[in-house]
Amino acid sequence: MKTKLFLLSIVSFIQFAYADITLPRIFGDNMVLQRESEVYLYGWASPNETFNITTGWDGKTIEVKTGINAKWRVQVTTPKAGGPYEIEFNGNKNTIKLKNVLIGEVWLASGQSNMEWSANSGIVDAATEIQNARYPNIRLFTVDKRTATTPQEYVSGDWEICSPETMADFSAVAYFFARRVQEEMNIPVGLIDASWGASSAEVWTPEYVFDEHPQLKESHKLIKTNQWAPIERSTLYNAMIAPLTNFKISGALWYQGESNTANAQSYKDLFTKMIMSWRKEWGADFPFYYVQIAPYNYGRAHEGAIVRDQQRRALTLPNTGMVVTSDICTVDDIHPQNKQDVGLRLANIALKEHFNVLKTEVYGPLFKNFETNDRELLVHLDHANGLHFKAKSDSFFEIAGADGVYHTAKPKIRNNTVVLTAKQVSVPVSVRFAWGNTDIPGLFNAAELPTSTFSSN
Predict the structure, then answer these.
(1) What global pTM score does this model have?
(2) What's the rounded Cα separation, in Å, for the pair 265 and 339?
(3) Which of the chain's ends, N or C, has fewer CB atoms near its CB within 10 Å?
(4) Residue 2 CB partners (closer than 8 Å, separation 6+)
(5) pLDDT tens for residues 349-398?
(6) Cα–Cα dist 137/142, whole Å
(7) Domain spanning 103-354: which CATH class is it, in words?
(8) For the Sialate O-acetylesterase domain, which residue ranges apply (predicted)?
(9) Which CATH class is domain 2-102?
């Protein structure tokens, strides 16, 4: 009996000592690693196990030892964009070989349904776009929808090579972003889509943000339950973002805001703190480019405009950029079908601000400040070169006096400045623009990019 127990102990010890090396699903065949960076490879094995990793781009072999918690993490240096390469993990019990690995640009795409929206969901020229989506150096990883009450370490999903079959169900905005970047720079692009339709920004924000800023807990109470997405704070961050924070990315793309119309006034506060928390968890001030929600007939007056203005105000956070979509929307559809131009505009911001390869204007006019001259109110805008109205329809400018009552203003353009007057306002003190939920104004700059909704208050 003692002999049998001894033998069983030996067998158990051997199984414990030589467990399989295990990798998170974010590491797999066909993946993309961030170029010219220090990136982490990580996973699990037996406690205190020693094994080797060989990186194909330089032929180096690294010895790795797990901790007592059975986790391991090692930093490797990636080369310039290229590939394909292999990465081999050689343990005492198993060997893992990752094949067809590319080195390039890795971008995370997140938000709600307009980011999740695919060609199969319905976009302009869907059949043609799907048929032409043959870009083997664009790789796609869709994070499976999950929730969690605490931050997790593992996401479910697989890297896929971009093809008509895989592109058709992937984020269309992210795909068009990657296609534009690759065409301009001729480098591999890896996209990670972690989005969930109808989700509010609160579910994508770590819980400690709410602990540090109780006012955000209060504003979150205004978010109503819906049938499409969880509303509990941090649940999607915990399950779909936290497990990615050790995986090196170049930047993030975001398309969300429709589900925060209920607490629109606090969106800038929430959104900027969410961005800062993501950067903190990744340990990098990566670029964060986002899409302003489009005009749509929301339930309460002005709530969509307030979110748009809050998104504009979030640009005060460094290394951010915003795409305005008022000219490529339909006010009766909360899911505009033109995802091509959205992805193109996001990519152009990245190409100019992050990659420094584009010289053209990539932003529409943005409110800077105003001044008054007797009955006139002069609006100064950034990115206003070649300012013009495309149509003679309602300009959507309003000004108010000390009583706070807004009146439609008559606009003139003078040296790329908008000059406003209203018969009812003798001493103007404030101005707002496109302040209706469905306002689609026609004020553009020379790059034919539209002016953002704004309020001077």
Answers:
(1) 0.95
(2) 27
(3) N
(4) none
(5) 999 999 999 999 999 999 999 999 999 999 999 999 999 998 766 789 99
(6) 16
(7) alpha beta
(8) 105-350
(9) mainly beta
